[in-house]
Automatic annotation (TrEMBL):
NCBIfam families: PRK09145.1 (NF006601)
Protein's UniProt name: 3'-5' exonuclease
Entry superkingdom: Bacteria
Record domain Exonuclease: where: 29-202
Keywords: Exonuclease, Hydrolase, Nuclease
Length: 202
């Protein structure tokens, strides 16, 4: 009930009818999304790159991958470069945040979003989405770590559940891709989602 009220308010807040497609959920498709940012503090974080890939049924549509660099307002520090490998000169040719997010919205449409600690990525994206369309993202969200927690809790109700990404990758036997690459991390999250789905936690 509350979710329906929130979606209704978000729909009324739209500034442009082009974004009504965000409210048309696809019955058999989802989008796995990941963002690389300048900070883990939502208030300070700027987008550096966005990666996303569509999931249809039990397949990852690798041919339908979204992968863009974003030109941040502030120059990334050396520590940030060491994590993501994205140098200022790499980002100088990136899209503006508004352009990158606009293209992402066209890519995802109304599909539910999948991700590992997705709440952070969505919170950062919403900093750019709301000024652009008048509303935050209305898409349903599927949190991988929560699905994995339920999966492990069902097996061992009294045990501690390790939610580190590498633990999920090892436990669910998903191929390890290079980390801190937005498109690669989105594909990893998609593989984890399908692995959990095969175990009854999709």
């Amino acid at each position: 009930m509350l979710a329906a009220i929130k979606r209704g308010w978000q729909k009324r807040s739209l500034r442009d009818d082009r974004y009504l497609a965000l409210f048309d959920e696809h019955p058999d498709e989802l989008v796995s999304v990941d963002c690389e940012t300048t900070s883990l503090n939502v208030g300070e974080a700027e987008l550096l790159s966005i990666g996303a890939v569509k999931i249809r049924g039990n397949r990852i549509l690798a041919s339908e991958t979204f992968d863009v660099l974003v030109r941040p307002e502030h120059r990334p520090g050396a520590k940030n470069v060491s994590v993501h490998g994205l140098r200022p000169r790499d980002l100088s040719a990136g899209l503006t945040p508004a352009d990158a997010v606009g293209r992402l919205l066209d890519f995802i449409g109304g599909r539910p979003l999948v991700g590992y600690y997705l709440e952070f990525d969505v919170a950062v994206l919403n900093k750019y989405v709301k000024p652009l369309i008048g509303s935050t993202l209305p898409n349903r969200q599927v949190e991988i770590s929560a699905r994995y927690y339920d999966y492990k809790f069902r097996q061992h109700p009294d045990s501690h559940v390790d939610l580190k990404l590498q633990t999920l990758i090892d436990e669910l036997k998903v191929p390890a891709l290079p980390r801190h690459d937005a498109a690669g991390d989105a594909i990893t999250a998609a593989m984890l989602y399908l692995a959990l789905k095969r175990r009854g936690f999709g």
